[in-house]
Amino acid sequence: MNWMAFTPELTYVAMAAVFLGLSMAREDHRRDFHTALVFSAVGVGVSLASAGVTADLFAESYRVDLFSQVFKVLLACGFFLVVVLCNELSGVKRRLHPEFYLLLTTSTLALMLLVSSVHLLTIYVSLELSSYSLYVLVYLRKNRPRRESTVVHYFLIGASASAVMVFGIALLYGSTRTMYAVEMARVLPSVISQPAAAIGFVMTLAGFFFKLAVFPFHFWAPEVYEGAVNQLTTYIATASKAAAIALLVRLTALGDSSAALAQVLVVLSIVTMTVGNVSAIVQKDLKRLLAYSSVAHAGYVLIGILSMNPAGYAGAVFYSAALVTLKFTCFMVLVKVAADGANITVDELAGLHKRSPILALALMLSLFGLCGIPPTIGFIGKLLVFTAAVEKGYFTLVLIAMINVVISLYYYLLVLKAAYLTEPKAGLPPLPVSAGDRLLAGTLIVLIVGIGFYPDPVIQIARSAAAVLL
Amino acid sequence: MTTTATLSDPNVATTLAACAAPLLAFAAIFLGARRFARLSAGLSIGAVTVSLAGAVFLLAANWHAEAPQVFSASWLVSDAVRIPVGVLLDPISLLMMTVVAVICFLVQIYSLGYMAGDPGFSRYYGFMSLFAWAMLSLTLSSSLFQLYVFWELVGLSSYLLIGFWYEKFSASQAGKKAFVMTRAGDVAFMLGLFVLLVGAGTLDVTAVNGPAAARMNPSLITLSALLIFGGIVGKSAQFPLLTWLPDAMEGPTPVSALLHSATMVAAGVFLFARLFPFFRQSPAAMGVFLVIGTVSMLLSSTMAMVSRDIKQVWAYSTISQLGFMIMGLAAGSFFAGVFHLTTHAGFKALLFLCSGVVIHALDTNDMFEIARKKGRRLKLAMICMTLAAAALAGIPPLSGFFSKESILAALAALDNPIWLAAALLGVLLTAYYAFRLIFIILFPRPELVQPESGRGHGSGHGAGTAMGSALVVLAAATLALGFAAAPLARFLSGDPAAAHPGPHLPWLPYAGIGLAAGGLLLAWFEFGRPAADQKGFVERVPALAALFANRWYIDVFYARLISRLVDRGLAWLCAKTDQRVIDAGLDAASKHIIRSSGVLSALQSGMIQHRLLVLFAVVVMLGLYFIA
């Protein structure tokens, strides 16, 4: 067996083991932070180093290919960035910091396993591992009234989604007699017209609809985004979404030939983006607003996936990278503004451009990116998925998506208005932004605009990654 | 047809320099020069001078050019998605570029005086440069995608110029309205581009105007033309998206002069002219454009008749004149629309800049207030304003007369006389509202005039050199431009006879002059003559006055519609769900056993069940869908 292909995952296993040990050691939150920082940086390096590796592991239930490696790099970067934000992890008791990192690591490990899994059971087990880590993580927030209710809410919806998914897997197995994705791709086209196979297929996707917060599995998003520690919300909004997109792309590529499946996804996409955007308008809490914005973006991503053509899959892969960048930038600003780890309302961003110009600029560009204003990475993402859909003739869908984009502009502008045009409350000092934070914000700004201007390399990667699936 | 140029071509090099200079100035101002106000202004004006020189050079060099010149490169998004970018030099782009450069230059000079001492002086010049770059690049774009990007950038810089200036504006309902309304138009525009791309396979301007569109299905042409026209409606503030423009007048007056009268809002009309051959392939769409132009022209004229705010009057008049241009273009006369665009840029910028002098000196926008404070003593400004108002009204021999006359001639060529009648009515109303304002200011009722007061504002405080010189140049243009009709017609369409489109109707100019004079006399009778009580005939009918003053209740209609649709409909529902989750959760939590209630409340508040019910119901419905 080629262990080299498994090194990124092993790195995170080692990291988890170290934090398991640290959780039993004396309390020292600086040590925990630095350990996590070093390990996650190593994780980025290792996943980059193994980016070109291909292999089939564990009785061919685990495939290391360009598609999985691209997402592993994305996950490693997302995880690293989240750890960078944990410098001031004031939302969690210091005694629990090692546990926090431990669970975050296992969740990342699970997501990495997920993007490489090509057997329905490994897919299911990885998905559950990542979800269970998150259930506990949500509970770790200190001084949060009714956090149990948030977690139970999250858990019940997650468990329901899993139940639907397992039932779907059973149906799918019943009609195709296989659990291997590769074989399924061969068998499925001939049986997809049978109701059992088609229903099984859609229900199998339910687990990822839950992760991605697609209607009707999106109900957890606002509660959990609001209830979780800011850093954890960042993680849920970035890394966890990217992995869900990866698996949706991988699985949908199997059921390519079904028009009925595409129609179901069209309906889900429309409902999801509309529910997300319309609900976001009335939100006061910034995290709740971003939660609904994530729901809306799940709808846009589905457009790329349901196009079921190479351009659409590549668009979805690109879109996931864009989402990670843009959402992370938003949350970085949020974490910095809410220095004491509390939740903030949109109004509390007032006068951000005076308190910290660079954070305000980063926020503005990321919001522009989320609305899809050129030249940002978000515009290219939308351009790719929309053109893929138009190529397939989904004209009405794109029209509805564009109307949604206009609706979304409204609430993004409300946030910008607060940040740029409202005067800060008297007595609020400038935000302390360290040199490292400046560097991070600057890098993100350059990425958002730079890839917006010259997206070709990233598109090439997305395209070759998606090409592996077909 | 077109010649392809390379980078070393003097035309292309000049064009790129002319476009890039303001961008460099913008970057320099925001990267460091911001702390030095004079340096920032110098950089910005220097850059726009380069653009102006470039534009004039290009216009002169290509005055007799036979074919449009194209310089193109491609922006490689990926190997499959290749976005061509480039420069297209043809008569319409060269003319528009020159107009934009001239007005930008003059307004920036004027702003030296107007904005002097303002704390945001450098920032203002920075945004001015950004605008100049975006607007110049827009006019020269060789592909519609590129044009669209700059179109958005122009909108953004407009928002920055008003919004950063007057914090209350962007925070206000009006600011949101401006953004949402223009965006609504832009979405239609973008969809139109999509249809065009799908139908014709290209967004290249020359291809769309030529062979590519000929291959398209006629209904697709109509669809995309109508959608693209949506963008024009938004940008040029035409019916039904016309109410944002008067609200945008809260910005500094030079910004209103530059963006909201002469250049940015005219970008819509420019786009129409740019795609004129394409639009003309769909007679149905042209019919719709004609209706929209006419309706906007008449509606906004009536609104201008009752407003007391001088900038609002000019804003309404801008909408109305843009409507005139669209009528001219939609009637099939390329020259008439573009010529009116050119002359209008001159006299409308002049009107705004004169108003700026008055507002600057007297600190009020209200025309009666200005009259009371003896606005007429600001001699230069008042002379120029009267001149420009006469041009607006279409009094010969000023520029507005000639361009309006060619639009009337184009409309007279149509089969249905109603368009000509509407336009003639518009001429009457225009003269009336323009001179209503002039007479109110010039001939205040003696009993209301403020006695000499010791306040600093007064006659000595009029236009400085910077502001005055801009006025004089524009006034000269207003006097002279009308006589350029024949050469411009030759330049634009290769045929001097295009200056007089349609059948030769000897009575038409007289009808135009007669109606303009009629409007002027009516204004004189009601506002100018010594015994006038300065109450317009509209104001004698309160219902009508209220209708006009409330902008035909268009805003009220939108507000109702939006509140019904969004606030009371969907958003209300979502807010309700939200409340129910939290409130019901809290209530249940307090009702049930306290210690372990965290878990229980979530289970018993009822909401989680409802949500799971929705979840499973949807899954079941999906299942049914596949079985059925």
Describe the structure.
Chain A is mainly alpha-helical and 470 residues long. Chain A has a domain at 257-470. Chain A is 74% helix and 1% strand. Chain A has 20 helices and two strands. A two-stranded antiparallel sheet of chain A has the order 1-2. The longest helix of chain A has 30 residues, at 147-176. The radius of gyration of chain A is 21 Å and the shape is globular. The mean pLDDT of chain A is 87. Chain B has 628 residues and is mainly alpha-helical. Chain B folds into two domains: 3-450 and 460-530, no CATH class; 557-627. Helices cover 72% and strands 3% of the residues of chain B. Chain B has helices spanning 10-31, 37-61, 91-114, 121-140, 144-163, 167-171, 173-200, 205-209, 211-214, 218-235, 244-247, 253-262, 266-274, 276-279, 283-304, 310-330, 334-362, 367-372, 379-393, 399-412, 418-442, 465-480, 485-493, 507-528, 542-549, 554-591, 597-604, 607-627, and strands spanning 3-4, 69-76, 82-89. In chain B, strands 1-2-3 form a three-stranded mixed β-sheet. In chain B, a hairpin with a 5-residue loop joins strand 2 (69-76) and strand 3 (82-89). Chain B is globular, with a radius of gyration of 27 Å. Residues 454-461 and 592-606 of chain B have low confidence and may be disordered. Classes of the chains: A mainly alpha (470), B mainly alpha (628). The interface between A and B is large, with 61 and 51 residues.
Q: What is the element layout, followed by pairings?
A:
The complex is a heterodimer of chains A (470) and B (628).
Chain A: H1 7-22, H2 29-49, E1 55-57, E2 62-64, H3 66-85, H4 97-116, H5 120-139, H6 147-176, H7 181-191, H8 195-212, H9 220-227, H10 230-237, H11 239-252, H12 259-281, H13 286-306, H14 310-337, H15 352-355, H16 357-371, H17 377-391, H18 395-421, H19 435-453, H20 456-467
Chain B: E1 3-4, H1 10-31, H2 37-61, E2 69-76, E3 82-89, H3 91-114, H4 121-140, H5 144-163, H6 167-171, H7 173-200, H8 205-209, H9 211-214, H10 218-235, H11 244-247, H12 253-262, H13 266-274, H14 276-279, H15 283-304, H16 310-330, H17 334-362, H18 367-372, H19 379-393, H20 399-412, H21 418-442, H22 465-480, H23 485-493, H24 507-528, H25 542-549, H26 554-591, H27 597-604, H28 607-627
Parallel strand pairs in B: 1-2
Antiparallel strand pairs in B: 2-3
Helix pairs in contact in B: 1-2, 1-4, 2-3, 2-4, 3-4, 3-12, 3-17, 3-22, 4-5, 5-7, 7-10, 10-13, 10-15, 12-16, 12-17, 13-16, 13-17, 15-16, 15-21, 16-17, 16-20, 16-21, 17-19, 17-20, 17-22, 19-21, 19-22, 20-21, 20-24, 21-24, 26-27
